[in-house]
Design goal:
- By secondary structure, this protein is of the alpha/beta class.
- The chain has two domains: 3-107 and 270-287, Nucleotidyltransferase, domain 5 (2-Layer Sandwich); 121-266, Nucleotidyltransferase, domain 5 (2-Layer Sandwich), CATH 3.30.420.
- The protein has helices at residues 35-48, 87-94, 104-115, 176-180, 182-189, 202-221, 238-250, 259-262, 272-287; strands spanning 3-8, 12-18, 24-31, 53-58, 73-74, 85-86, 99-103, 124-129, 133-139, 142-143, 225-229, 263-265.
- It has a five-stranded mixed β-sheet with strand order 3-2-1-4-7. The protein has a five-stranded mixed β-sheet with strand order 10-9-8-11-12, sandwiched between helices.
- It is globular and about 55 Å long.
- Bound molecules: adenosine-5'-triphosphate (ATP) and zinc ion (ZN).
- Residues 154, 169, 171-172, 175, 177-178 line the site of zinc ion.
- Residues 9-11, 128, 130-132, 182-183, 186, 192-194, 230-232, 234-235 line the site of adenosine-5'-triphosphate.
- Keywords: ATP-binding, Carbohydrate metabolism, Kinase, Magnesium, Metal-binding, Nucleotide-binding, Transferase, Zinc.
Length: 288
């Protein structure tokens, strides 16, 4: 059995083949340009590398409910050409295998939940803090969706006293993504996140907003584990600060696992998405 994965991001698509244990046999990175150009490269990849099923995680927003007329579409993205694009419909015309369709963060969450850091627990949340912020919720070993997929990166937070940073999101006056994602760190400091000193005070601010988000996720979903990944979380010094602020904000309201096992880095590193795609392909095959 050879499984396929697509991690469809706003900057690049990764297509890969591998097996159900998460071994990646082959992968390619394709720049996200126009749907015609990028999808032609995706089609060519799976023609050259035949697979038995494909798991797809896409940037969005996307239609995830099968009874939604826009199921399988990338819906309202401002990315030129991709709004209202029937991704799944296109793929079905080019590959004749079972497909699993979800968001990029749900795909990564599934990888971590099946064979990554959350493999031993049924409820986990995967949060990526990168160019944007997204989160995927796994509830009882399944991807959680509501009326549509969640948009937890845009949760509202409390502005810290003295923080007059203009929220870096065109929709909200304050939200997690706008206050704490990589571009917000860039605007706050005038430097790329990776060049900001480890002890710069901006990290305490970023950690505070992420800690608030972890409290909100805890009281909303009661996960066993919260996984923090993405470019910003390469700053490992954030973890202890987030745990400390999380404990202060939760203030003993409910019991949670030991914090160094509750708020954790990803187990699969930069591979969560691709591995998740392979495992979603396996799921599609088992449901076909
Ligand atoms: N070592 C680092 N420390 C702090 N910030 C970093 C670091 N490396 C990358 N970043 C920031 O993370 C962001 C990129 O995030 P990431 O590497 O997760 O890629 P991405 O795929 O573009 O993100 P997204 O998942 O939102 O699409 C940039 O804003 C970058 O400045
Ligand atoms: Zn927002």
């Amino acid at each position: 059995m050879i499984l396929g994965a697509i991690e469809a991001g706003g900057t690049k698509f990764v297509c890969a083949t591998g097996d159900e244990t998460g071994n990646v046999f082959d992968r390619v990175s394709i720049p996200t340009t126009t749907p015609a150009e990028t999808m032609a490269a995706v089609d060519a990849y799976f023609k050259a590398h035949p697979v038995d099923a494909i798991g797809i995680g896409s940037f969005g927003p996307i239609g995830v409910n099968p009874d939604d007329p826009k199921y399988g579409y990338i819906t309202t993205t401002p990315k030129p050409g991709w709004g209202d694009f029937d991704f799944l419909g296109h793929l079905k015309q080019h590959v004749d295998v079972p497909l699993y369709w979800t968001t990029d963060v749900n795909e990564a969450a599934y990888g971590e939940a099946e064979i990554g850091i959350a493999k031993d627990v049924p409820n986990s949340i995967y949060v990526t803090i990168g160019t944007g912020v997204g989160a995927g919720v796994i509830s009882h070993n399944e991807i959680f969706n509501g009326r549509t997929h969640t948009e937890l990166g845009h949760m509202r937070l409390n502005r810290l006293p003295g923080d007059d940073f203009e929220n870096n999101c065109p929709y909200h006056d304050i939200c997690l993504e706008g206050m704490a994602a990589g571009p917000a760190v860039g605007k706050r400091t005038g430097k790329a996140g990776k060049d900001v000193a480890e002890d710069d005070p901006v990290w305490a601010t970023v950690a505070d907003y992420i800690a608030q988000a972890c409290v909100n996720l805890t009281v909303s979903f009661a996960p066993d584990t919260i996984i923090l990944n993405g470019g910003v979380m390469k700053q490992k010094q954030l973890f202890p600060i987030i745990r400390e602020k999380f404990a202060a904000y939760l203030n003993g309201y409910e019991e949670v696992p030991a914090l160094d096992q509750y708020i954790v880095p990803a187990g699969l590193g930069d591979n969560s998405g691709v591995v998740g795609g392979l495992l979603l392909a396996k799921l599609a095959l088992s449901e076909a």
